[in-house]
Amino acid sequence: MDQQATYREFCNHMPGLPVFAQPWHLDAVCEGGQWDAAIARPGEEVVGAMPYFLKRKGPFRYLTMPHFTKHLGPFLLPEFRQLKFEHKFYAELIRRLPPVHAIQQDFHPGATNWLPFYWQGFRQSTRYTYRIELSEGLEKVAEGFNRNIRRNLHKAEQELQVHSRLSPEQFYEINKKSFARQGIPVPYSRSHFLRHDDALAAHQARRIFCAEDGRGNIHSAAYLIWDSQASYYHLSGDAPEWRQSGGGILLVREAIRYTYEVLGLPVFDFEGSMMPQVEAIRRQFGARQIPYFRVWKYNSQLFRLLEWARGRER
User: Fold this and answer.
1) How many CB atoms lie within 10 A of CB 56?
2) Tens digits of per-residue pLDDT, 234-269?
3) Which of 55, 242, 283, 300 is the right S-S partner for 219, CB 3.0 to 4.6 Å?
4) Looking at the structure, do residues 161 and 256 belong to the same domain, yes or no?
5) Three-state DSSP class for residue 201
């Protein structure tokens, strides 16, 4: 059995695996390269794995994060999540990564030990996502909203209706507008997004929300995905001419409500961001800052220099 097939089997026995690391998700998002996995197997039993995305650029081979993928490994079975096992099996996973010129991964928040990677010459920077705990109910969550959020929600409620009738194709067009407003090219194609959407829809792991006014104008759209542990405010978009209507804020609240009342999940995750203006909105909803690790290593100084010249060095 090859490593990818072994990883698929491992996932069948791995509780709480994030949606981003599911094999069917990797099948859909790894455009322009191929995914595989390093496997830790001290005997016959597979105890851990680290999925990765391999790309090529000219003569260079490197591991990076696919689009639409917030977090990846390493992952160990629950009975091996102790430091002595992490040190041992993370080292084995590192040894089983392919020979490449550079490696970069964003670990899931549950991976709190990167020391074995440090010992192998990796570097790390701490990044943050923002989460709202839902276990105490929606009333408690609403108490965490600040005055500005409450005011904008009241305004949006008077003018807008929320529904889930927007098609994936329509969502992509709204999503594009947010990039266009910032003068940034959309980092993924329409076909890539739709392939990603098809996989999530087939596994009943996504819902699209839309805020629309009485004249049929779409103000905002949001794309929520989930796994067995949390929902994720995955993608969003606003029509530039109606950015001040509060549609985006209204959809965040609807996504939180849906997570609690329909999905029955304990956590709503904003998926970051590190951008000051976005981070401020996350805090205004009362979200809690959760750290995760970006871990990387350059095995080629030439590749590192080229990344530095492009402004992409980690």
Assistant:
1) 13
2) 999 999 888 888 999 999 999 999 999 999 999 999
3) 242
4) yes
5) helix
